[in-house]
Amino acid sequence: MALEVVGGAFLSAFLEEVFDKMYSREVMDFIQGKKFTEVLLKNLKITLLSVNAVLDDAEEKQISNSDVKLWLGELKEAIYDAEDLLNEIKTEALRCKVEAEFGSSTSKVEAEFGSSTSKVQC
Fold first, then answer.
1. Highest mean pLDDT: which range of 8-12, 37-41, 69-73
2. Quick one: pLDDT at residue 44?
3. Which of 21, 59, 74, 97 sits in a 20 to 30 Å window from 6, CA-based?
4. How far lies 77's CA from each of 33, 67, 71, 73, 82, in Å?
5. Rounded to 5 degrees, what angle do the CA atoms 18, 26, 48 make?
6. How far from the centroid of its chain's Cα atoms is residue 54's Cα?
7. In this model, does residue 53 exceed pLDDT 50?
8. CA-to-CA distance for 97 and 91, rounded, in angstroms?
């Protein structure tokens, strides 16, 4: 029982970390001017704020309600996915910054062999 409450507290802290990443300079610079992405980021913020509003209550109710416990498990996975996405955005933003500053050292290799990963145009 105590571990479930601690797990819920961890989820609240992790949600705050996702908010911090979402509004980091790298992410904001990367999405600047990309309307589709800005709309998605705004929707993500609204969703996360809504989740945060009910999270405390859900953390208490998970002890006696298995459906709430399952929901919190699914929420945890969704937050991990959101964090992964934000990490990918930050990585792409840093890649674009490095390429703009130093040029692409991989462009010759990619031209010769092709790229195995899809990259966003900088």
1. 69-73
2. 78
3. 21
4. 29, 16, 10, 7, 9
5. 25
6. 20
7. yes
8. 10
Q: What is the pTM of this model?
A: 0.61
Distance CA 30, CA 38 (A): 10
pLDDT at 6: 45
Q: Which of 9, 20, 3 is nearest to 55 (CA)?
A: 9
How far apart CA 104 and CA 95 sit, in angstroms, is: 9
- Please state, in angstroms and as integers, the Cα–Cα distance from residue 95 to each residue in 32, 80, 83, 84, following that order: 16, 22, 18, 16
Domain ranges of the chain: 2-113
End-to-end Cα separation, the chain, in angstroms: 48
Report helix, strand or coil for 53: helix
At 41-50, the pLDDT tens digits run 788 778 878 8
DSSP string, 70-111: HHHHHHHHHHHHHHHHHHHHHHHHHHHHHHHHH--SSHHHHH
* pLDDT tier, 104 (very low <50, low <70, confident <90, very high otherwise): low
